[in-house]
Amino acid sequence: LVVLTKSGCPPSYAQVYNAALKREYTECDEWRVDALARIEQENPALVITTGRAYYNVMKDGKRLSQAESAPLLEEGYVSMLEDLLDRSDRVVVLRDNPKPGMDVADCVSASLDRLTDCAAPREKALSFTPVGARAAEQVEDVELVDLTPVFCPEDTCPAVIGDVLVYRDHGHLTSTFASTLTGI
Question: Which residues contact residue 13 at a Cβ distance below 8 angstroms, ignoring those fewer than 6 apart?
Fold first, then answer.
């Protein structure tokens, strides 16, 4: 397994804004070029992409809202998936995991006797635009894997599943929970 990731860079050709740098994140462009070159060099049997697409896109020097950004992120993701299919026979998109809307680890540590207080309503946790899933549906031969039923088995998305903390913060999985997904 070769992991190619850069914090703040979505798997989309869209130009994104970096809040910490307070500017367009041009470093993503270079990273994408290098990542695609590496994928081509490796000639993998499988490429898996994922990443929540909640970025603000830059267009004509202006930072767009997340609502305005979603279609551009999706368009750029479609192009990326097409390029990945040129470099691998199999491309899979993992649908974005639900976003709990709170720092789950903090909530759980403060509510050990009331873990239901830390569960997110399924509808709210999935209220973001599923850019990756939409892009995958537009590109023939790209597979979509949706683990939402694992995260949200009912109408809520629990903070703890099988005695394992699901999120280490507001949306990143704990490595312990991720390891429980290997049997799926």
Answer: 32, 76, 77, 79, 80
Q: Which helix (H) or strand (E) holds 160?
A: strand 160-161
Q: What is the pLDDT of residues 89-121, one digit of tens each?
A: 999 999 999 999 999 999 999 999 999 999 999
- List, in sequence order, every residue forming a beta bridge with 59; answer none if it has no partner: 62
CA dist 184 and 172 (Å) reads 19
* CA angle, 97 then 81 then 132, to 5°: 25
CA–CA distances in Å: residue 117 to residues 50, 127, 128, 161: 28, 19, 21, 14
- Token code pair at residue 11: 């798997």
